[in-house]
Amino acid sequence: MPVISISLTERNLESLDALRDALSMSGRSEAVRLCLRTAEAEIREREGYQGELEGVLVMVHGGNLPDSSHRLDLTHHMFQDIITTKIHTHLMSDKCLEVMIIRGRGGKVNQMLSYFQTDDNIEYVRFLRS
What we know:
The protein is an alpha+beta fold. It contains 4 helices and 4 strands. A 4-stranded antiparallel sheet has the order 2-3-1-4, covered by helices on one side.
């Protein structure tokens, strides 16, 4: 197998090691390969998001991070035309849970998911298509 070099934040490295340990993997490379397979499966699923669709979006993010609420609010405004319902609640450990009902064109849903998934302050993003 080819060997590559990647740069990770401390948080990424901690997550990678936690994944490796939780699944009793032999090393970090095996954990990275699992992450890639998981991402590939999600991309294939999202390729099927065409036409009108609806579903539930669940997100967990740090609630007390500087500017995170402002950034999240701006993103919500960008996609307000497809967010029909939004519930926000505070969780333990200074985290927040967002649950949204989404209804719109598949391309717009994919665009919104990409925005949320690439935000380092959002720990978990999952769209459940109805």
